[in-house]
Amino acid sequence: LIVTTQSGCKDTIDQPVTVYSPPVANFTGGGAGCGPLCNSYNDFSTSADGNVNRWTWSFPGGSPSSSSMQNPTNICYNTPGTYGASLIVTTTYGCKDTIAITPLVTVYSWPHADFCIDQTTAPATDPVFNFCPQWTPNPGVTNWMWNFGDGSSLDSLSTNPVHSYSTTATANDFYSYDICLRVQNEHGCWDTICKTVELIPEFTFYMPNCFTPNEDHTNEFFFGKG
Length: 226
Prior knowledge:
single chain; 226 residues; mainly beta; five-stranded mixed β-sheet; four-stranded mixed β-sheet; 0% helix
């Protein structure tokens, strides 16, 4: 700066001006998977002048939705969809830089396993059941596995299986089996549901082995039923 008076007198002063280079914001993280999906993020920001000493993270759709840590962890996304993230870094000189990456996180939805049974009870003399798929989304399920609860081989081919329990239900008696269906979509997300079927004895003629003729008006007479 040079100043001059009305008399022509002058004076000069020089002062330095320092311009700091801004930082360069950068980070890694994110991923894809079945919800809830939890991720960690790593700061890779650099600075030529001064050190980065402040981080301002934003995670729209995540929980928590923000962080001031350098390397935040356990950022979870519960709702299926696609999400991004942003980072603002600040140096000791107050210089800033911002980076935003979208898409960064993809959360896939889970399938819903369900199936129907033509009947929940059947006679032990005819222990056959028919099943039909009711899983959702359809299409969307790429793999499935039927477990009929009787030690037989798992079925990963049939969508409408017919299964007989004649191998294990060898007597005219009561039996119960838990049928479980596991379904999986193209992203590896899976769901399982189990339902119970029963076999009941079927009699063409039933003869009791006792009666109680004690005048209490219950079970007083001995007779067979056909």
